[in-house]
């Protein structure tokens, strides 16, 4: 039987902070930020505004995607001395499309306590008001900037039955929406823009309707979250009798491929057993 890991004294607190409205912070988060020995922030200048608002005077050090790995030894040393550290990102919950994953993984593996201080998350906040199914969802975050990698990821989830959640910058939002519609179909969706901020906006409708609204504007501003519901494809009517024979005869006339390959293509197109199509094809070819 595996014995539980002996926890060391230092503690890393993963603290969720507001995604926009500074009032969206818990009493516990404020207390923890005051009491820890060090705050590790994605952007120290951004976090300084939050700390100033709540009159929190504490030591702050940067921890972002470009220096996270270099900071590990320093943080582990402080934890081994029994100190406590609060990890915060610019907005929302750290490690959720934000830096911190490597730090949390390393600290946990070294046997130190890692404690969540729950709070805001743009993905959950948006999903709760989307009007889309929320019993099952798949968080995709920011997709790759390269078109091929991005579209390959979308192809891989087009049959996913959960509500899909994406983050995107305002400069690329329309491009992503158009790719979503091309690959997933014109599904029910919502775009949440500037969640909890002064210009907060929720656009609901089909993907095509939302695209039309955004394209009518001079520009799109603010970080965006996209929510796309699953929608089963419309059933394809399978042709029978003379209609089937006509389609097969046309395929024979238009193609130089073997009957087996023609049957394979038609099977996919018509959602009909390949064996049945092949037998009808052979009969028509003989006649």
From TrEMBL:
<dbReference type="Pfam" id="PF00590">
    <property type="entry name" value="TP_methylase"/>
</dbReference>
<dbReference type="GO" id="GO:0070677">
    <property type="term" value="F:rRNA (cytosine-2'-O-)-methyltransferase activity"/>
</dbReference>
<keyword id="KW-0808">Transferase</keyword>
<keyword id="KW-0489">Methyltransferase</keyword>
<protein>
    <recommendedName>
        <fullName>Ribosomal RNA small subunit methyltransferase I</fullName>
        <ecNumber>2.1.1.198</ecNumber>
    </recommendedName>
</protein>
<dbReference type="InterPro" id="IPR014776">
    <property type="entry name" value="4pyrrole_Mease_sub2"/>
</dbReference>
<dbReference type="InterPro" id="IPR000878">
    <property type="entry name" value="4pyrrol_Mease"/>
</dbReference>
<dbReference type="InterPro" id="IPR018063">
    <property type="entry name" value="SAM_MeTrfase_RsmI_CS"/>
</dbReference>
<dbReference type="InterPro" id="IPR035996">
    <property type="entry name" value="4pyrrol_Methylase_sf"/>
</dbReference>
<keyword id="KW-0963">Cytoplasm</keyword>
<keyword id="KW-0949">S-adenosyl-L-methionine</keyword>
<feature type="domain" description="Tetrapyrrole methylase">
    <location>
        <begin position="11"/>
        <end position="210"/>
    </location>
</feature>
<dbReference type="InterPro" id="IPR008189">
    <property type="entry name" value="rRNA_ssu_MeTfrase_I"/>
</dbReference>
<dbReference type="InterPro" id="IPR014777">
    <property type="entry name" value="4pyrrole_Mease_sub1"/>
</dbReference>
<comment type="similarity">
    <text>Belongs to the methyltransferase superfamily. RsmI family.</text>
</comment>
<comment type="function">
    <text>Catalyzes the 2'-O-methylation of the ribose of cytidine 1402 (C1402) in 16S rRNA.</text>
</comment>
<dbReference type="GO" id="GO:0005737">
    <property type="term" value="C:cytoplasm"/>
</dbReference>
<keyword id="KW-0698">rRNA processing</keyword>
